[in-house]
Specification:
Blueprint (H helix, E strand, L loop, with lengths): L1 H23 L4 H90 L1
Amino acid sequence: MKAKSLLLGFLAGGAAAGISALLTAPASGREARQYLKDSKETLKSQLTDLKAEIMDIKSSASFASKEGKTAFKEFSKDIKFSLNNWKNEIRPHQQELQRELQKIEAAIRELEANLNLNK
C-alpha cells in the first residue's frame, strides 16, 4: 500500500512540476531551444578559451619550476664554494689563534705557579 501511495505522489508531483514549468516559462519552446543553442555555442567558445589559458598557465608554471630548480642548484653550488673558500681563508688565522691561546694558557699557568711560590 505504501509503494502505491509513493508512486501516486511522484506522479502527481511530476505532473504539477510540468504544468508549473509550462505556465511560467518566459518564452515558447522554439525560442527557448534557440536560446539554449546560442548559449551552447557561447559557452563552448568560453570553455575553449579557458582551456587554452589554463594550458598557458600550466606551461608557465612548469617553466618557472624548472628555472627555479636550476637557479637553486646554482645558488647552492655558489654557497658551498663560498663556504669552502672562507674555511680555507680562515684556516691559517684559526691556527694562529690556537697558537696564541696556547701561549696565553702557558702564561697563565706560569703566573699561577709564580703566585703559588710567593705564598
